[in-house]
Specification:
By secondary structure, this protein is α+β, with helices and mostly antiparallel strands. The protein has one domain. Strands 1, 2, 3, 4, 5, 6, 7 and 8 form an eight-stranded antiparallel β-sheet that branches.
């Protein structure tokens, strides 16, 4: 199995059985797994982070009206479907956890309308591993009682990213 297959299998298991799953008991009774795009090796990217000179803290609005605090670390640029694109990478207060919320033209048309998330990994040579095959829905996509950061305007792409998790039905 591939790393993506393992990732998806673990996520489906978590959603179905873990007490911290965002699914309600009723949703779990009928749960048969999440829907995903086919894995696309072309959307597993190692990208250079163009760090911002001023890595300013920001507050992202959440789905419940709260705020979540992050630091704007920098941007990654890439090509998807022959189109150029760029996204801002955010970090926690210490820059250890890297967070990439994004929306694209599939948002609301096959994927969660408010966008999806990626947990970005540091790779060798100061690069970042950005694997869109691991894009996932925020927990508020399954249960509105969860508070999820909303995708900032700067991370709304005008191209489709047909990888990762699809909309939850």
């Amino acid at each position: 199995m591939s790393e993506t297959t393992d990732f998806r299998k673990a996520k489906d298991g978590f959603m179905a059985t873990d007490h911290q799953s965002p699914l309600t008991d009723e949703q779990r009774r009928d749960f048969r797994g999440l829907n995903y795009y086919d894995e696309d090796p072309a959307l597993r990217l190692e990208l250079k982070l163009e760090e911002f000179e001023d890595q300013e803290p920001i507050e992202m609005q959440t789905s419940t009206g709260d705020v979540a605090r992050y630091v704007r670390l920098g941007r990654v640029s890439f090509t998807v479907g022959g189109e150029e694109a760029a996204l801002t990478v955010f970090g926690d207060d210490h820059g250890h956890e890297l967070f990439l919320p994004f929306a694209d033209t599939t948002s609301g048309e096959g994927t969660y309308a408010a966008g999806r998330y990626l947990d970005v990994q540091r790779a060798h040579g100061g690069r970042l591993l950005v694997d869109f095959n691991h894009a996932y829905n925020p927990y508020c996509a399954y249960n509105e009682s969860w508070s999820c950061p909303l995708t900032p305007f700067e991370n709304r792409l005008t191209v489709p990213v047909r990888a990762g998790e699809k909309d939850f039905k």
